[in-house]
Specification:
Blueprint (H helix, E strand, L loop, with lengths): L1 H9 E4 L7 E4 L7 H9 L3 H6 L17 E4 L2 H11 L5 H18 L7 E5 L7 H13 L4 E5 L16 E2 L7 H4 L4 E5 L1 E2 L2 H10 L5 E5 L6 E4 L8 E5 L6 E5 L6 E6 L5 E4 L6 E5 H9 L13 E6 L18 E8 L9 H5 L6 E8 L22 E5 L5 H13 L5 E5 L14 H16 L7 E4 L1
Parallel strand pairs: 3-4, 4-5, 5-7, 6-8, 7-9, 9-11, 10-12, 11-13, 12-14, 13-15, 15-16, 16-17, 17-18, 18-19, 19-20, 20-21
Antiparallel strand pairs: 1-2
Length: 456
C-alpha cells in the first residue's frame, strides 16, 4: 500500500486532446534533499516558500535554504500608501509585515544564509523585533545585510527623525559581524563611532552604504578596512567631515549631501568610479580647481546636480582618464545646458556620455542657441539622453552632441518621466511622449551612417 502511494505521488496524469492519457514522472522530487535545497536557495524567498504546497515532501524544504531572505514585499505596499495617502492602513500593514518576518525567521532551519533584507516603514518602537532579526541573520553567518526603513511619505503623519531605529553596531559581538561582506543601512541611526567599529571588526566588508542617518557627523575610513571596495554616503545632513585615508582597495565612492567642504581623500590608488551629488556637487562644480587630487585618476564620473543649481559650467581641469561621464541636471526651458560641454571637453578620452534632464516647469519657447568653436568628441561612441521631452533645451543639446561626435555608434533616448515610473498609474505617459518622439524622429535624420538609435 505504501509503495503504491509513493508511485502515485511520482506520476502525474496528463490528458492530451486526441491522444491517450500520458503519465509523466516527477524526476525533480527524486533528487536528494541537499540538491533540492541548493536549487531553492537560488530562488527568491517568496518563490521558495510557494514550493511548500507541491507535496508533503516539499512542505518544509524551503526552511533549509541558504540563499537570500529578502523581505522587500513591503515596498509595494508603501508605494500605494504614499501615492494615495492611505495613513489608516499603515499601522495594520506594519503589524502584518512584522508578523510575516517573525514567522519566517522562526521557521528557518538552514545553517547559513547569504543575504538578509528588511524594507518597510519601521522605527525605534520596533527595536526589539529588528534586533532579533539582525541577531538571527548574523547567527546564520549572513554575508549581505540590508535595512531600508524609509518612513511613509504621508501628508498627515510628519516624520520624526528621533524615532529612527539605532543600529546596535557595538553590541553585536565580533564573531557575529565578521562574516559581513556588504552592509546597507537606509533611514537608520548610525554614528561615526558605530562606523569605525564596523570597519575595524568586519575584515571582509567590501560594500558599505549609509543614507539618511541624522546622527552621522564624522566619518573616518582608514587603513584597517583593507577589503573595502565600495563606499556610499548619502543625505546624512549633519555630516561635517568624510576622511578617507589609505583605503588601498577602494574603487568606488558615492557621496551626496549638504556639506560643501570637509571631504578628504588620501592614498586611494585604485579609486576609479566617483559619484557626487547634493550641495557638495554644486560646490565642487563651481570650485573644480579645488578638486581632491585623488579624483584626477577616475575613469567614471557621475555628477548629480538635481538640486538648487544655476546652469552654467566653468572650465574644468583635464580629466584624462575619464571614459564615462553621467550628468543629472535641473533643466528649465529658459536656460541652455550647452555649457555642460566644458565638462566633456575636459575628458578627451570620453567613450560614453549620459544626461538626465530633471525638468522644472512646463515646456516653453526661446531662441535656439548654437555652440561656437565647439570641440569634436572623437572618442565618444555611446550617448544616452534620459527624460528627453523634445523642448528647446534638450533638442539644442542633442543637436550639438550629434554634430560634435562623428563616431557615435549607439544613441539611447528615453522620453519617459523617471518619477512617474515609480508610480502605480501610467496612463499619462502616452500623451506626454508623443511630441518628444516626434522630435526624436527628426533628430534621427542627423545620425551618422551606421549609428544605432533606440527610443523608449
Amino acid at each position: 500500500m505504501e509503495k503504491g502511494l509513493q508511485l502515485t505521488s511520482k506520476l502525474q496524469k496528463c490528458s492530451r486532446r486526441g491522444s491517450k492519457d500520458v503519465y509523466l514522472v516527477d524526476r525533480i522530487s527524486e533528487l536528494p534533499d541537499e540538491i533540492l535545497e541548493f536549487i531553492l536557495s537560488r530562488l527568491r524567498m517568496r518563490e521558495a516558500v510557494r514550493t511548500s504546497v507541491l507535496s508533503r515532501r516539499w512542505k518544509d524544504l524551503w526552511t533549509f535554504t541558504t540563499g537570500s531572505l529578502d523581505f522587500d514585499f513591503g515596498s509595494k505596499v508603501l508605494l500605494l500608501i504614499n501615492e494615495f495617502n492611505l495613513s489608516k492602513i499603515l499601522e495594520p500593514e506594519r503589524a502584518r509585515y512584522i508578523s510575516m518576518v517573525n514567522k519566517i525567521v522562526n521557521t528557518h532551519k538552514g545553517a547559513t544564509i547569504d543575504a538578509f533584507k528588511v524594507e518597510f516603514d519601521l522605527q525605534l518602537s520596533h527595536k526589539s523585533d529588528i534586533d532579533s532579526w539582525i541577531n538571527f541573520a548574523l547567527g546564520k553567518r549572513v554575508r549581505k545585510l540590508e535595512l531600508k526603513l524609509e518612513p511613509a511619505d504621508l501628508v498627515d503623519v510628519p516624520v520624526n527623525r528621533k524615532n529612527y531605529y539605532p543600529f546596535p553596531a557595538q553590541s553585536l559581538g565580533d564573531s557575529n559581524i565578521s562574516c559581513l561582506t556588504s552592509l546597507n543601512l537606509d533611514f537608520v541611526n548610525v554614528s561615526g563611532e558605530d562606523l569605525e567599529y564596523l570597519l575595524s571588526h568586519c575584515p571582509f566588508l567590501e560594500f558599505l552604504s549609509i543614507s539618511c542617518s541624522p546622527v552621522l557627523v564624522d566619518v573616518m575610513v582608514i587603513a584597517p578596512c583593507a577589503k573595502l571596495k565600495h563606499l556610499e554616503i548619502a543625505d546624512c545632513n549633519h555630516l561635517k567631515s568624510l576622511d578617507i585615508s589609505c583605503a588601498q582597495n577602494l574603487t568606488s565612492l558615492a557621496y551626496s549631501g549638504r556639506n560643501d567642504r570637509g571631504l578628504s581623500f588620501r592614498n586611494v590608488p585604485n579609486l576609479s568610479n566617483v559619484s557626487l551629488g547634493g550641495f557638495y556637487c554644486v560646490y565642487l562644480v563651481q570650485k573644480f580647481h579645488e578638486l581632491p587630487i585623488a579624483l584626477s585618476q577616475i575613469e567614471k564620473l557621475q555628477l548629480n546636480l538635481c538640486t538648487t543649481f544655476s546652469p552654467g559650467f566653468p572650465k574644468f581641469p583635464l580629466l584624462q582618464n575619464v571614459k564615462q561621464l553621467e550628468l543629472s541636471v535641473q533643466a528649465f526651458d529658459n536656460h541652455s545646458l550647452l555649457s555642460c560641454a566644458s565638462v566633456m571637453e575636459a575628458c578627451p578620452n570620453l567613450y560614453r556620455f549620459s544626461m538626465l534632464f530633471d525638468w522644472l516647469g512646463k515646456p516653453g519657447e526661446r531662441e535656439v542657441q548654437q555652440m561656437e568653436n565647439c570641440s569634436m568628441h572623437k572618442c565618444l561612441k555611446v550617448l544616452e539622453l534620459l527624460w528627453f521631452r523634445g523642448s528647446t533645451t534638450d533638442v539644442e543639446l542633442a543637436t550639438y552632441l550629434l554634430s560634435s561626435a562623428p563616431f557615435l555608434e549607439k544613441i539611447y533616448i528615453d522620453t519617459r518621466n523617471p518619477y512617474l515610473l515609480l508610480r502605480t498609474t501610467f496612463g499619462q505617459f502616452e500623451e506626454e511622449n508623443v511630441s518628444a518622439k516626434k522630435c526624436v524622429r527628426r533628430l534621427a535624420e542627423q545620425l551618422s551612417p551606421g549609428a544605432e538609435l533606440l527610443t523608449l
